[in-house]
């Protein structure tokens, strides 16, 4: 299986090199994933760090898309997915750059993909969890997943999570160019579109850790978008 990991970054200079080393150390000789970093012209020089590492340490194993300006998480992922499809990858994983998503779980997720269409790295299934978050973040995240699950009637417990693995046929089919969400809702919308089209997913437990360094991009706007967008998705239903 040719596996691509897409990592969107905005101001992750303090995390990205260590994360790339960790992925290579843990998975370089087994899953041997290719990594695509999609950076939005981070003022802290994230893209230059990745480009240097690519040339000096990991030629042929890491690629970068350095975009001209901050265009949002969803558009970074969609561009990364398209790149992966165009480059003939069989499976594409999403992963944050801040160490919240430990690459150690990827082999189990990849094994699970053999019998499913997509795999959700899940905090809210037996064996999963969250470390280091304050109470309000826990409530927003857990509550957001419960809220979306109830309104969209989805069989998945961690809907807002961004550590997922997709078979290429799912990403080819779900209409990436019609995705309308940006923040948390992007992760909900991907899963909703996949289930709407009859694809089957499985949740693999992960323990999510608070970001290692750098600043959160979480905002009230992102939370409010999730509150109303879930209704938008439900009303759009099969027309999505
Ligand atoms: N390319 C790109 N990446 C982004 C953008 N916004 C966030 N990211 C990256 O997307 C990933 C998830 O964003 P986070 O800020 O970690 O969001 P979060 O996990 O909900 O919140 P915190 O961990 O508290 O910051 C990280 O790797 C970010 O650097 C963006 O506009 N463009
Ligand atoms: Mg994060």
Structure description:
By secondary structure, the chain is of the alpha/beta class. It has a single domain, classed as Alpha-Beta Complex (Spore Coat Polysaccharide Biosynthesis Protein SpsA, Chain A). Helix content is 41%, strand content 18%. The protein is built from eight helices and nine strands. The protein has helices spanning 16-27, 46-56, 73-86, 106-112, 135-152, 168-173, 184-196, 220-236, and strands at 3-9, 34-39, 62-66, 91-94, 118-122, 129-131, 164-167, 201-205, 207-209. The strands form two sheets. It has a seven-stranded mixed sheet, with helices on both faces. The longest helix has 18 residues, at 135-152. The protein is globular, with a radius of gyration of 17 Å. The mean pLDDT is 94. The protein binds guanosine-5'-triphosphate (GTP) and magnesium ion (MG).
What series of H and E elements makes up the topology?
EHEHEHEHEEHEHHEEH
Count of β-strands = 9
CATH architectural type: Alpha-Beta Complex
Domain count: 1
Main pleated sheet: 7 strands, mixed
Helix content: 40-55%
Q: How big a fraction of the residues is strand?
A: 15-25%
Poorly predicted runs of 5 or more residues: none
Choose one word for the global shape. Answer: globular
- Give the N-terminus to C-terminus distance in angstroms: 30 Å
Q: CATH superfamily membership, which one?
A: Spore Coat Polysaccharide Biosynthesis Protein SpsA, Chain A
Question: Which CATH class is shown?
Answer: Alpha Beta
Ligand inventory: guanosine-5'-triphosphate, magnesium ion
Total helix count?
Answer: 8
What would the average pLDDT be, to the nearest integer? 94
CATH T-level fold name: Spore Coat Polysaccharide Biosynthesis Protein SpsA, Chain A
Question: Strands of the biggest beta sheet: in what spatial order?
Answer: 3-2-1-4-7-5-8
Regarding quaternary structure, what we see is: single chain
